[in-house]
Design brief:
It is built from five helices and no strands. It is mainly α and 122 residues long. Helix 3 runs parallel beside helix 5.
């Protein structure tokens, strides 16, 4: 049973969130490039929180720590394989919004788990 939960919650959601982060492609022609991350960030946080609260059933904090680590590894791996080989944009790949994306990916599951545990969700 744990392996099925691992595939759905850890791997599937992690990959889906990474693909959601390439929403910048849709905004590329309507939003200045240096602001795209700031437009996507609130949507990403909201969707991530909804998934973490509604779809992730555990209330154990170590599980959420693990989830953040797995999602972070997925994001870094996918970026390394699919984004970094592309020619870098002017000014480099990341500004503050890019670094916040990584921090959010790592910490948001932990914060949601902490909130669910203290709010006695189940």
């Amino acid at each position: 049973m744990r392996s099925r939960v691992l595939l759905r919650e850890d791997l599937l959601w992690g990959v889906l969130f990474w693909f959601g982060s390439i929403l910048w492609l849709a905004l590329f022609f309507v939003v200045p490039a240096f602001r795209i991350g700031w437009y996507i960030m609130p949507v990403g946080v909201l969707v991530s929180l909804l998934v973490l609260v509604k779809n992730i059933k555990s209330t154990e904090l170590p599980y959420y720590l693990w989830l953040g680590i797995i999602w972070m590894r997925i994001v870094l791996g996918m970026d390394y394989l699919l984004i970094f080989p592309l020619p870098p944009p002017s000014g480099g790949y990341y500004k503050l919004d890019g670094y916040l994306y990584y921090v959010r990916t790592l910490l948001l599951p932990w914060l949601a788990g902490w909130w669910k545990k203290t709010a006695s969700f189940g």
